[in-house]
Amino acid sequence: MPSGPGRGTRGVTGTQAANEASAQPPDTRYRGRFAPSPTGRLHAGSLVGALASYLDARAHGGTWLVRIEDIDGPRTVPGADQDIIRTLARFGMQSDEPVVRQSARTSLYSEALAQLDRAGLIYPCGCTRKEIADSLANAHARHTTLAYPGTCRQGLHGKSARAWRLRVPDQADASIAFDDRWQGRQTQNLALEVGDFVLKRADGQWAYQLAVVVDDAEQGITHVVRGADLLDSTARQIYLQRCLGVPTPSYLHVPVVTDAQGEKLSKQTGARELDAEAPLPALLAAATHLGLALKYDAPGYRSLDAFYGDAIAAWSERFVQRQA
Ligand code: GLU
Questions:
Q1: Cβ of 50 less than 6 Å from ligand 1
Q2: pTM for this structure?
Q3: Is the CB of 67 under 6 A from ligand 1?
Q4: Do 283 and 307 contact (CB within 8 A), yes or no?
């Protein structure tokens, strides 16, 4: 049984249950994570992502980390990080290693950008949002692509540098494919569908794509489990991993929770706060959303331990490959 600093006893109990259920040896190399942006409190939608990543880590007998993605200064809500960590703990999920914050790791992002610069893979871009929108509107009218048209690829033409972009390969070589453990085979042509993408923004903030790739690599993440709203970012991340010479983790994107209007549940769309005093009903709802067949509904579970034992076994049954 692997044990790490801060490993919660609930997780250990659940892992034992799952290991017994699946007769799998623990995968001590497995490292997964939940990476919330502290833009508000945890809600039913973000709980699904947290639970899925936690169950996958426990079902493998691996390590589960929490990383606070607080590089987007303007969107960060003071105190939300602590609130998320506290709420996760009340729901029975604790990071196996000390929680890291992206805001304290910007030197890693600078190093990665410098490495890409030395390799000639990035260029400064002087386009304003309006210029890009105008050129995309023209492209649309001509039924061509909606990707960034590469205006500054050959130089700034007198404009001043605002953002840094990563050069993507030409169309013929820009197809990135991967097998998502939930969604199946995915393919995206970066040249056609995305274009050269931003790694450092015009407002000086690090882009999510760069920070997430650098952190997943630096933390040795082997399995990414997160919401399907990020499925579309994955090809960019895989390409960036190749440019930086770091491994590509395996990916599993769970369906996002939507509201009555079909919008992704978020603070902006009025997601209700979770009741930290009564975690089981919300956990059961999250497990149901994940399609897990559990023995009981909420009143049947007397403890978080009992819930996690069943949930890890059900996840394991569905998502952890059995050895013959
Ligand atoms: N911080 C991102 C979010 O909250 C998630 C990043 C990830 O899991 O890759 O949407």
A1: no
A2: 0.89
A3: no
A4: yes
